[in-house]
UniProtKB/TrEMBL annotation, chain A:
Keywords from the UniProt entry: Cytoplasm, Exosome
Species for this entry: Wickerhamomyces ciferrii (strain ATCC 14091 / BCRC 22168 / CBS 111 / JCM 3599 / NBRC 0793 / NRRL Y-1031 F-60-10) (Yeast)
Subcellular location: Cytoplasm; Nucleus, Nucleolus
GO cellular component: cytoplasmic exosome (RNase complex); nuclear exosome (RNase complex); nucleolus
Keyword Iron-sulfur listed: no
Family assignment from sequence similarity: Belongs to the RNase PH family.
Location, primary (coarse class): cytoplasm
Protein's recorded name: Ribosomal RNA-processing protein 42
MF (Gene Ontology): mRNA 3'-UTR AU-rich region binding
Domain Exoribonuclease phosphorolytic positions: 30-153
Gene3D superfamilies: GHMP Kinase, N-terminal domain
Automatic annotation (TrEMBL), chain B:
Region (Disordered): 67-89
UniProt domain Exosome complex component CSL4 C-terminal: residue ranges: 128-234
Matching Pfam families: CSL4_N (PF21551), EXOSC1 (PF10447)
Name used for this protein in its record: Exosome complex component CSL4
Regions of compositional bias (Acidic residues) in chain numbering: 67-80
Automatic annotation (TrEMBL), chain C:
Family: Belongs to the RNase PH family.
The name this protein goes by in its record: Polyribonucleotide nucleotidyltransferase
Claim: Transferase is one of the keywords in the record: yes
Superkingdom of source: Eukaryota
């Protein structure tokens, strides 16, 4: 999106005020309203869709496969597809690397464990159908919903197969819910002395810098990094602002988790 | 002076404030950033002030901006003085200086550069043509409506690019995705068009200021001619727009018979003569003196 | 593809290949022991560092940096003219070439993105309209890709600063990066206390970020002094 010089300086001025005046009237810690659907893909073990007020839309599908633990080193695989971006661009690869490190680290292998030899491997496919702002937050929120509503087939054979050559067998229709905590990522835009959560496209365009902060198990965690929210206006930020942004995330994170948990 | 300006700087080093008092209470020195310097806002004791700081490694050069030059940029001055207290302008004498940083010349090309070492800056990175600059350019191709040129040098600052940014021996590397060139263009063409110079266009109506509609490009320029021209605008993505509609602008160097013949001299503003054969060819010539 | 052939100058034979040396056998690849106290001692690290600018004459600017088994060289090309639509400010592209075979795609892009973000905020972009700057990072040797990759990143960032200066491209301040081993975090500073880049990949929570910032900031001031001294001593 391209803003004219006047629009840009007008927006920048507004967002510089204390408190910042955001073009859609939100406060600095307020998210855009989201609409969610869960479990609508019959062929997946878990699925979710989130639509944002600006028309951004993300679908996540989670599938599981039984793998031998000795031959598989990673139990989570993440695939990212954002419409309008080629798969090999740095934008996509960076999103993918952020998500992959996040889920590999924080989806516990115990929750995917089947027997002493076998385990589930999760394939998380993230598809962003339309995208008008930095999509990482949207992607992790949708993945959070999908992971939270993932049902894996219940094992009926013996769990201890150390001595026996046996493939695990599963119950015909009973499922176990995937248990665990899942991480989410917040995007904070820094503009002047202000910091705003969940920036929309106009706010991104005028922001001085962006920050992504991950959240897991009630704590801010790494990866934390700065991201390029626009092409030409990046500026340096004071350390204080980064710390304040983390405090902002701390303030809102539990409410976000609670509302995501209550989604049905 | 109350603050001493450093003589040698590295990027980020503050050089001086924009306004500075002198011993004479009526005289104020005003500094403007030139090449290698940038205006920056800093906060000192919770007060915002603007300073000039360096952006290159090199020697600091201070030139006074003379009064007659000031008048040509008067419109700009008035706007600026709104910020720096208008009444001050009337009370004080303001002496203006341009402060620039001249990078150390240790590039292999510069060993041969004996001329004007003080004023010419051959480090290409700071010499991209700006609006209003006079440039030397070479004609590459013509059509009925315009002449295409490549820009060789900016007058008073030296070559635009010593090596077109592709590496000094023509074997520069290009990123697999097309690198920075791919940002605005498809990958295939970006990587096949390596090593191009900055290009320009002289439209037929910009060749001269009289009888603009009767200009014939073919009677004004020929491929291979070296042209002195002025930058009209930054143009589009590919081309700068140039003009030669001034007496001192136009062809300065040309050879007869499309470059096959001898060197030619201008005998009037639209004719050149070959010194060996006496052949006359038409060109839009620059006034030599 | 026919369209990508450069027809305008004489090139080498089409089937020419660069010389590649076989990798060293395992017993010769000695891994340096990581000593946490050594990672924190920035002053001795600086004395162990070798820097040289301008070695690659084919580039507009280049730098070479060596520390503790990490060897990187950076070359900068540009500002080179770009084609297509008009851009008011220069575009930056960063590319990483890995000669060690230790980098995967994701780590490669992570490095590139970090360097790009850092330098987008310091290069005087509006000075170079209609042009692009290409930065090539060449990783020659790596100390420890598993635990010290962010240390390598901080070195790459410092080397890029030097290469950009060598190219004569205007930047508003020196970017200096410093790495905190304990928390596996790298931060890049300008003007002593402003952050242009942060990348934290620690195992624990980041509640102690303010301490990390304090620590890396102190380190970065040492690095900045060293870089400034180097620049002045080699240029004068």
């Amino acid at each position: 999106m391209i803003l004219s010089a006047t629009e840009r300086s007008y927006l920048y001025e507004l967002l510089q005020q204390t408190p910042p005046i955001r073009p859609d009237g939100r406060s600095n810690k307020q998210f855009r309203p989201i609409q969610s659907h869960i479990g609508f893909l019959d062929n997946s073990n878990g699925s979710a869709k989130i639509t944002l007020s600006d028309g951004s839309e993300c679908i996540v599908s989670i599938k599981a496969e039984v793998v031998e633990k000795s031959t598989t080193n990673e139990l989570v695989s993440v695939d990212v597809d954002v419409s309008g971006h080629r798969d090999d661009t740095s934008f996509i690869l960076n999103l993918q690397s952020s998500l992959k490190t996040l889920y590999l680290k924080h989806i516990s292998s115990e929750s995917l464990n089947l027997t002493t030899k076998f385990a589930y491997k999760l394939f998380i496919d993230v598809l962003v159908i339309s995208n008008y702002s930095y999509p990482l937050t949207l992607m992790t929120f949708t993945s959070y919903l999908a992971l939270n509503n993932t049902y894996l087939p219940k094992i009926t054979s013996s769990v201890d197969d150390k001595e026996i050559e046996e493939q695990p067998t599963f119950h015909d229709y009973e499922f176990n819910k995937l248990i665990g905590q899942f991480p989410i990522v917040f995007t904070v835009a820094i503009i002047g002395k202000n910091y705003i959560i969940d920036p929309n496209i106009e706010e991104m365009e005028v922001s001085d810098n962006g920050l992504i902060i991950s959240w897991f198990n009630g704590k801010p965690i790494s990866p934390i990094q700065n991201v390029k929210l626009n092409d030409g206006n990046l500026k340096s930020v004071k350390p204080q602002l980064i710390l304040q942004s983390i405090d902002l995330v701390k303030e809102v994170a539990n409410d976000v988790i609670n509302s995501l948990n209550s989604a049905e | 002076m109350s603050i001493e300006i450093p003589s040698f700087t590295v990027p980020g080093q503050p050089l001086c404030p924009t306004l500075q008092k002198t011993k004479d209470p009526k005289l104020v020195h005003k500094f403007e950033p030139g090449n290698g310097a940038i205006l920056q806002q800093v906060e000192i004791n919770n007060k915002k002030t603007s300073i000039i700081s360096s952006t290159l490694v090199g020697k600091v050069q201070i030139e006074e901006i003379l009064e007659d030059e000031k008048e040509t940029t008067d419109g700009q001055d008035e706007e600026e003085s709104k910020n720096s207290q208008k009444e001050d302008n009337e009370e004080y004498n303001i002496k203006k200086f341009k402060i620039s940083v001249i990078p150390n010349l240790k590039n292999q090309y510069n060993e041969f550069d004996f001329i004007n070492k003080e004023t010419t800056n051959t480090n290409f990175a700071t010499n991209l043509p700006k609006e209003g600059d006079i440039v030397l350019s070479r004609v590459t191709k013509l059509n009925l409506k315009q002449a295409f040129v490549e820009i060789l040098a900016v007058e008073g600052s030296g070559n635009v690019l010593t090596d077109s940014g592709i590496g000094s021996n023509g074997h520069g590397i290009i990123a697999p995705g097309g690198g920075s060139g791919a940002a605005t263009f498809s990958i295939h063409q970006a990587s096949s068009d390596l090593g191009e110079t900055f290009k320009g266009i002289i439209r037929s109506q910009d060749v001269r200021s009289t009888d603009r509609d009767k200009v014939k490009i073919i009677e004004s320029f020929k491929p291979g001619d070296i042209i002195r021209a002025q930058i009209l605008s930054l143009g589009d993505g590919t081309n700068y727009y140039l003009t030669t509609s001034r007496n001192d602008l136009g062809v300065v160097y040309a050879k007869s018979y499309n470059g096959a013949g001898g060197l030619m001299y201008a005998i009037d503003w639209q004719t050149m003569v070959c010194s060996k054969t006496g052949e006359l060819e038409s060109r839009k010539c620059a006034k030599p003196f | 593809m026919a369209t990508t052939i450069d027809r305008r100058r004489l090139l080498g034979p089409a089937n020419a290949k660069p010389l590649v040396f076989a990798p060293l056998p395992e017993e010769y690849q000695q891994k340096l022991q990581i000593d946490a106290s050594k990672e924190d001692d920035i002053e001795s690290q600086i004395t162990r560092t070798f820097i040289k600018s301008g070695l690659i004459t084919n580039a507009n600017g280049s730098s070479f940096l060596e520390l503790d088994g990490n060897i990187v060289s950076i070359s900068v090309y540009g500002p080179r003219p770009i084609r297509g639509s008009f851009v008011e400010k220069t575009t930056l592209s960063v590319n990483l070439e890995d000669n060690t075979g230790l980098f995967n795609d994701l780590l490669n892009k992570k490095f590139c993105q970090y360097i790009e973000n850092n330098f987008l905020s310091v290069i005087n972009l509006s000075k170079y309209p209609k042009s692009g700057i290409d930065i090539f990072i060449n990783i020659i040797s790596v100390q420890d890709i598993d635990q010290l990759y962010l240390k390598l990143l901080s070195l790459v960032s410092d080397a890029t600063t030097l290469a950009i200066i060598d190219a004569g491209i205007e930047i508003i301040d020196l970017v200096v990066s410093s790495f905190d081993y304990e928390n596996n975090t790298v931060l890049s500073y300008i003007k002593n206390d402003e952050i242009v880049g942060i990348l934290g990949e620690s195992e624990d929570s980041i509640e102690n970020l303010s301490k990390i910032i304090e620590k890396t900031q102190k380190k970065s001031i040492h690095v900045k002094n060293a870089l400034t001294t180097h620049l002045i001593s080699t240029s004068q």
